[in-house]
């Protein structure tokens, strides 16, 4: 039986579990890591953009960002209208980013151990095609 979605979900759960083991001692959780990574690359975005990127409902993003704001990782600022909020990382989060990134990267290295470059390229292409098929 080829249940590719189930296998992908199990892989994601394994990554999430390992990531939480490595970054929770650093004050961050896997659900927050995606936000940190996106903001680090983009510098700033709206909550709507973040919600769409992560494929998460707006109320979930709002709650997560509120927790992250309390922890001093993000700043939420008013946008062009009352409903729009711009989010960016704090200096504290930017200072912690290299440690979080290293922890996440170590898990990636562990996961791709003994998989050659060509196989990884094929795997990445397949993942992209599957994601596009579902969008």
TrEMBL record:
All copies of the HTH marR-type domain together span 1-132
UniProt key word Hydrolase: no
Name of a matching Pfam family: MarR_2
Q: Which UniProt keywords apply?
A: DNA-binding, Transcription, Transcription regulation
Q: What superkingdom does the record give?
A: Bacteria
Asked whether the UniProt record includes Membrane among its keywords, one would answer no
What PROSITE patterns does the record point to? Answer: HTH_MARR_2
Annotated signal sequence range? none
Q: Which terms does the record give in the GO molecular function aspect? A: DNA binding; DNA-binding transcription factor activity
- Which Gene3D superfamilies does the entry mention? Winged helix-like DNA-binding domain superfamily/Winged helix DNA-binding domain
Matching InterPro entries: ArsR-like_HTH, HTH_MarR-typ, WH-like_DNA-bd_sf, WH_DNA-bd_sf
SMART domains (UniProt xref): HTH_MARR
Tell me what this protein is called.
Answer: DNA-binding transcriptional regulator, MarR family
Q: From what organism does this protein derive?
A: Clostridium uliginosum
């Amino acid at each position: 039986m080829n249940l590719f979605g189930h296998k992908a979900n199990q892989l994601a759960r394994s990554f999430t579990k390992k990531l939480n083991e490595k970054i929770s001692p650093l004050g961050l959780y896997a659900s927050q890591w995606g936000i940190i990574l996106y903001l680090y690359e983009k510098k700033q975005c709206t909550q709507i953009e973040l919600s769409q990127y992560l494929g998460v409902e707006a109320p979930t993003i709002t709650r997560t960002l509120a927790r992250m704001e309390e922890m001093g990782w993000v700043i939420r600022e008013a946008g062009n209208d009352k409903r729009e909020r711009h989010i960016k990382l704090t200096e504290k989060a930017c200072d912690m980013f290299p440690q979080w990134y290293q922890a996440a990267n170590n898990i990636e290295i562990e996961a791709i151990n003994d998989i050659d470059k060509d196989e990884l390229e094929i795997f990445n292409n397949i993942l992209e095609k599957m994601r596009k098929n579902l969008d």
